């Protein structure tokens, strides 16, 4: 069975963005980019909400071919262009030319079916509203939280207010020179 893995930058108080979607507080460096590249190398499917997909699709398809593209942009752009993109949306339509599939209803059943297919991991970057729905259905196998050394005080949370207690097993911890600490947790 394929694993569904969340990779999310978060503040110390659990926000993934500021109140207006601000993400200018997120820290990163080459070592963190390389670390996240290990996730993408093991995955062949990206799962997004429509807002995050629109943002990713506006940038990543051509990011690696830009004259100033760095190694990270080239690697992630190549990954983005080859993987299946599954978007939870009631407004988008599937597009085989973009390897785009759409889930418009029954998220739980569709994700369970996707996890039973053969292939690599299913990776979720961003999309806190989708993460909340996945949490409510207990569909997340592994969390990788990129804890940034900041307290935002308010913003967009990746945690559902309606979630029942979910006990997780702690996994690896990795600290980066940019100040981010990556923490992993697995479903019991």
Automatic annotation (TrEMBL):
<dbReference type="GO" id="GO:0008703">
    <property type="term" value="F:5-amino-6-(5-phosphoribosylamino)uracil reductase activity"/>
</dbReference>
<dbReference type="InterPro" id="IPR002734">
    <property type="entry name" value="RibDG_C"/>
</dbReference>
<dbReference type="InterPro" id="IPR050765">
    <property type="entry name" value="Riboflavin_Biosynth_HTPR"/>
</dbReference>
<protein>
    <submittedName>
        <fullName>Dihydrofolate reductase</fullName>
    </submittedName>
</protein>
<feature type="domain" description="Bacterial bifunctional deaminase-reductase C-terminal">
    <location>
        <begin position="2"/>
        <end position="181"/>
    </location>
</feature>
<dbReference type="Pfam" id="PF01872">
    <property type="entry name" value="RibD_C"/>
</dbReference>
<dbReference type="InterPro" id="IPR024072">
    <property type="entry name" value="DHFR-like_dom_sf"/>
</dbReference>
<dbReference type="GO" id="GO:0009231">
    <property type="term" value="P:riboflavin biosynthetic process"/>
</dbReference>
